[in-house]
């Protein structure tokens, strides 16, 4: 053996080795594995923190869930298939428009529209038209739920940019980390050496002070450090590219311009903040996801889906079950509180009247022309838009229009062009100064209008109504108690045959009414009339046959009423009349006389003069006896004498052979005359009487009345 003999044993070598490792070995060579582990953990934390943080992870998971459902939804395929079926000319026009818009754009927005997030989509998307049209009820409901989820998600996510801010910060942190690692590793990698000179003051123990030690892992660590630098460089360059991508354009704004131009769905909104950022991120995977997702941002697409679901729910057979005959004796279809107007309605060709109530965003399509028999349309609290072809059809065919509204803006502007409209009914709150309202001035164009009814709060007759007075035959104003003044415009309505002024707080009969020589029917219900001395002026209205002064505060009937010889129907119910003048019965053409709910105690025998009387009511008065002359009115069909103080019913009632309705309930009768059996038209259903009193009739009379 050659060399220097040291006389050191194995334990001394171990001690020297540890001392050199602790004091002489460079810290980089010593802790290199731990540094790699720590840096790797930091990179992992930076990259995955936003996937674990509740405020961001919940948004990402929810977005991915919704995105997948939207991508796979049959409704998405159907909506886009409608676009793929358009003709080539329309597509060429869109491409030209798109190219022009792209050339005019510049800056961040231009680059945003031209980004990959909106390109190369048509080549990837091919629609199977055989399956695109099929969408059952369950799939429709699922798509409807998706629309609601997307709305709520967008409303929540667009409020903030926590995802974007967190992603930017973690990317910046990774870039800084990368630069630090490259800098110090490049400088210290040379410190990893196999031989290490060690100077340790342990001469007393070993007899030596200077040692030359070897680092057995130096060669491996040196190679690994170079590999580590290469991997970190690649990762760092990726982070630098990500940082460039983040700041090259605004990722907090996302435009669907290209999708709008390609699909023709013009109402797809641009989005911002975290919602836009996530769409940009998903575009890096596949832009088709964003396109299919955009379908669920479109209100037009949602309305189409609602329409499809509506059509599936309301089949023609189901709609026909709801058909009924209305007050105008027309076959009517009432639709209340639906989400829209089903297209299947226009397959019911026998429909004559369509009533829509509390339906928002109604669109009347051109297919309404299929309803050849449609003459009446009712819109109650509906916002309605109409296709131009449908408007042309309604102009020619619609005869009756009823509109009930809460706001003047709900009045459809197209109604003023219905030149063949004959009846118009408006129900809703109007301005007190309605004559200055521009919308109603257009009524003058309704040249065929014959009947106009306004239930509102008008304080004077609108000038627009006066403008159609030349052909108006019936006018109804039903107020809510607002006082109606300035009625001189009534004089211009020379062709008016029916006039209703209800609940208008009138204290006198308007003098302008006496100028309406063509008037046949006048209704002044629910006003504040106390005296009707002006009634004498009605003698000039030779055609007046119906006079309704009910629900007022009239205390007496003036004797001048005898001059109204043309009257056939007279309503005085719900007043405060105590005495009936005998002159009333000189109006010998009266067929209908209603005096119920007054304070009348005595019926004059002159009532027998009314040989044409068919209806007579004194219900709820204080009459104690009936004159025998009443039974001379042999044409009487309806007799209402209930809720009085009568104690005896004359046997002469048997003279009323045409009597079919008799109300005697609420009096003091102890027995009914058997002569009621002579009233062959009177049946049990038409006899209003206490059951016990009915039993006082002979059995054969009772049986006769019970037989139909």
From TrEMBL:
Entry GO CC: endoplasmic reticulum membrane; plasma membrane
Q: Which GO terms describe its biological process?
A: monoatomic ion transmembrane transport
This protein's record includes keyword Transmembrane: yes
SMART domains, A to Z: LRR_TYP (SM00369)
What the entry lists under Pfam families is as follows: LRR_8, Pannexin_like
Aminoacyl-tRNA synthetase keyword on record = no
Highest taxon of the source?
Answer: Eukaryota
Which compartments is it annotated to reside in? Cell membrane; Endoplasmic reticulum membrane
Composition bias of kind Polar residues appears in 96-114
Q: Where is this region: Disordered?
A: 82-114
Catalytic activity reads: taurine(out) = taurine(in); 2',3'-cGAMP(out) = 2',3'-cGAMP(in); chloride(in) = chloride(out); iodide(out) = iodide(in)
- Where would I find the LRRC8 pannexin-like TM region domain in this sequence? 1-243
According to the record, the segments passing through the membrane are 31-51, 226-247
> What keywords is this UniProt entry annotated with?
Cell membrane, Disulfide bond, Endoplasmic reticulum, Ion channel, Ion transport, Leucine-rich repeat, Membrane, Phosphoprotein, Repeat, Transmembrane, Transmembrane helix, Transport
Entry's family note: Belongs to the LRRC8 family.
The protein here is known as: Volume-regulated anion channel subunit LRRC8C
Can you name the source organism? Answer: Balaenoptera physalus (Fin whale)
């Amino acid at each position: 053996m050659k060399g220097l003999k040291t006389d050191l044993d194995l334990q001394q070598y171990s001690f020297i080795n540890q001392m050199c490792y602790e004091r002489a070995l460079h810290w980089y060579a010593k802790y290199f594995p731990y540094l790699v582990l720590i840096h790797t953990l930091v990179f992992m934390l930076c990259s995955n923190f936003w996937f674990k943080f509740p405020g961001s992870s919940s948004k990402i998971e929810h977005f991915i869930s919704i995105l997948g459902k939207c991508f796979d939804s049959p409704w998405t395929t159907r909506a886009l298939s409608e676009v793929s079926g358009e003709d080539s000319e329309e597509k060429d026009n869109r491409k030209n428009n798109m190219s022009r818009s792209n050339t005019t754009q510049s800056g961040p927005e231009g680059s945003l529209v031209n980004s990959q997030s909106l390109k190369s989509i048509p080549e990837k998307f091919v629609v199977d038209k055989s399956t695109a049209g099929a969408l059952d009820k369950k799939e429709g409901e699922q798509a409807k739920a998706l629309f609601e989820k997307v709305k709520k998600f967008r409303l929540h996510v667009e409020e903030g940019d926590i995802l974007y801010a967190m992603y930017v910060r973690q990317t910046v942190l990774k870039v800084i980390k990368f630069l630090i690692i490259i800098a110090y590793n490049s400088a210290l990698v040379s410190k990893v050496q196999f031989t290490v000179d060690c100077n340790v003051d342990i001469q007393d123990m070993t007899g030596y002070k200077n040692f030359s030690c070897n680092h057995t892992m130096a060669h491996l660590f040196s190679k690994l450090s170079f590999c580590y630098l290469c991997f970190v460089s690649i990762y760092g360059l990726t982070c630098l590219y990500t940082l460039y991508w983040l700041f090259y354009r605004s990722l907090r704004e996302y435009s669907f311009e290209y999708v709008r131009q390609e699909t023709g769905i013009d109402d797809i909104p641009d989005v911002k903040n975290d919602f836009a950022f996530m769409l940009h991120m998903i575009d890096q995977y596949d832009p088709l996801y964003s396109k299919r997702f955009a379908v669920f941002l479109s209100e037009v697409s949602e309305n189409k889906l609602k329409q499809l679901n509506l059509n599936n729910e309301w089949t023609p057979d189901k709609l026909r079950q709801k058909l009924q005959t209305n007050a105008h004796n027309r076959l009517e279809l009432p639709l209340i509180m639906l989400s829209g107007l089903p297209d299947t309605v226009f397959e019911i060709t026998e429909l004559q009247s369509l009533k829509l109530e509390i339906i928002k965003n109604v669109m009347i399509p051109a297919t309404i022309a299929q309803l050849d028999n449609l003459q009446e349309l009712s819109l109650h609290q509906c916002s309605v838009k109409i296709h131009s072809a449908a408007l042309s059809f309604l102009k020619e065919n619609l005869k009756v229009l009823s509109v009930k509204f809460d706001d003047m803006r709900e009045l459809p502007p197209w109604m003023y062009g219905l030149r063949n409209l004959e009846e118009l009914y408006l129900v809703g709150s109007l301005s007190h100064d309605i004559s200055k309202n521009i919308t109603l001035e257009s009524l003058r164009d309704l040249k065929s209008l014959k009947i106009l009814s306004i239930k509102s709060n008008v304080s004077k007759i609108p000038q627009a109504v006066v403008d159609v007075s030349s052909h108006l035959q019936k006018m109804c104003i039903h107020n809510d108690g607002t006082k109606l003044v300035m009625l001189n415009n009534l004089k211009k309505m020379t062709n008016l045959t029916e006039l209703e002024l209800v609940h208008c707080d009138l204290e006198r009969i308007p003098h302008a009414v006496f100028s309406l020589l063509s008037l046949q029917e006048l209704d002044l219900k629910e006003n504040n009339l106390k005296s009707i001395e002006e009634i004498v002026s009605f003698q000039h209205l030779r055609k007046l046959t119906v006079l309704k002064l009910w629900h007022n505060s009239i205390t007496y009937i003036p004797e001048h009423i005898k001059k109204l010889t043309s009257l056939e129907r007279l309503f005085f119910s719900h007043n405060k009349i105590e005495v009936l003048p005998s002159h009333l019965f000189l109006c010998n053409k009266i067929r209908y006389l209603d005096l119920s709910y007054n304070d009348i105690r005595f019926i004059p025998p002159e009532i027998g003069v009314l040989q044409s009387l068919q209806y007579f009511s004194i219900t709820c008065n204080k009459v104690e006896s009936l004159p025998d002359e009443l039974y001379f009115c042999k044409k009487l069909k309806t007799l209402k004498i209930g809720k009085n103080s009568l104690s005896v019913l004359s046997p002469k009632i048997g003279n009323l052979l045409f009597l079919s309705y008799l109300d005697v309930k609420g009096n003091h009768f102890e027995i009914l005359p058997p002569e009621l059996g002579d009233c062959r038209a009177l049946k049990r259903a038409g006899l209003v009487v206490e059951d016990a009193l009915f039993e006082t009739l002979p059995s054969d009379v009772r049986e006769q009345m019970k037989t139909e």
